[in-house]
Amino acid sequence: MLDLWSLESYRRELDRTSVKEEVWKRMYGKKILITGSTGMIGSFLVDLLRRKNEELSPADRFFLILPVRNIAYAKKRFPGCGESGEVKLYQTDLACIGQEPELPAADYIFAGAGSADPKQFAENPVGTMESNLFGAICLLEAARKSPGSRMVYISTGEVYGSGGAGTEEFKETDAFYVNSMDVRSCYPNSKRAAETFCAVYHKQYGTEAVVGRLCYIYGPTAKDTDSRSAAQFFRNAALGQDIVLKSKGEQIRSYCYVSDAVSALLHLIVYGSGGEAYNISDSGGSSSIREFAEAIAREAGVNCVYGIAEETEKAGYSKVPRAVQSPCKINSIGWEASVSLADGIRKTIQVLRG
Q1: Beta bridge mates, 253
Q2: DSSP string, 116-149
Q3: How far apart are CA 120 and CA 124, in angstroms?
Q4: Which residues contact residue 135 at a Cβ distance below 8 angstroms, ignoring those fewer than 6 apart?
Q5: Quick check: 139 pLDDT over 80?
Q6: Contact in structure between 241 and 302 (CB atoms under 8 Å)
Q7: What is the maximal distance between C-alpha atoms in the chain?
Q8: pLDDT tens digit string along 326-344?
């Protein structure tokens, strides 16, 4: 595991993350619960908050509550953090049906736990559904029991399904076909159901749960075991190895750099409307998978070659030909992406190369 926290290049990325001062001010001195804290999005969020704490007075610092499945891994990922201080780690499994843990009260909750790994969709579809759905319910209950708390549920653009003919961009009001009997649908359907739980908790209990639908996020915080194509491309590029495309790469995707994604989540936790969903995407970040891979290869000085996918890999692939998300709704409440696709690719490779 790369020790990102000790890298000056990574700390620069944390410092350059574009977050409005009024957002920070609303969060000063608050208890913040984050699940999925060792994943790509969650770990950047935790590191950003820890970095911000270094410049704040003790009264204004954030107190971070991080429930994790693997506490040994979490301690390696977040050096110097443990069971006390401003970052509390404790081991628990939010997806144990009928054994939901009692979570401490928090002012803000970021629900990022759950499986987003295509390999897991094929090898453990039951676990994928359980972690995405029951983890969300557990956190919604925690939010309901903490008066005044706000929650962002970290969802995905895959909830849109296959897309309609001629659809250029997915808007939050769109809902297209997902085959409920396709095992690969374990991911988008469990995310859809979790989103609906956010809506009904808001309606029935007044829970301030906001949904952030992420597009395809990339950056240096992806785990070494992440099987998503972008993570694999960057791992190869950082090592000076050729990037291997295991399809024609013709599918069009919205890409967004991890610091922009985290900035958007912070904006939503403060300004998002409860019971509503917002796309998190970069209006200038659309690209085919092949073009994305070729851009990484050019930046890293390696080649882009073609290989044959294994059956398990194929089973995890999304079949949606075009998945471009409109950021108009979140733009209307004051957030915009600030890192271009070219800059995000360059920054990721620089950090991964140390």
Answers
A1: 287, 323
A2: --HHHHHH-HHHHHHHHHHHHHHHHHHHHTSTT-
A3: 5
A4: 35, 94, 95, 111, 113, 114
A5: yes
A6: yes
A7: 55
A8: 999 999 999 999 999 999 9
Taking only the tens place, the pLDDT of each residue in 81-108 is: 876 689 999 888 887 655 667 788 999 9
* Main-chain phi, psi angles of 107, to 5 degrees: -80, -40
Q: Are strands 150-156 and 108-111 parallel, antiparallel or unpaired?
A: parallel
Cβ(187)–Cβ(144) under 8 Å? no
Distances from the Cα of 323 to the Cαs of 74, 121, 146, 307, in angstroms?
A: 32, 19, 36, 24
Tokens 């961009």, residue located: 169
**Alpha-carbon Rg for the chain in angstroms:** 19
Is a pLDDT exceeding 90 seen at residue 260? yes
Nearest to 158 by CA among 200, 121, 206: 121
pTM of the entire predicted model: 0.96
- The SS3 of residue 260 is helix
Question: The tokens 């049906």 sit on which residue?
Answer: 97
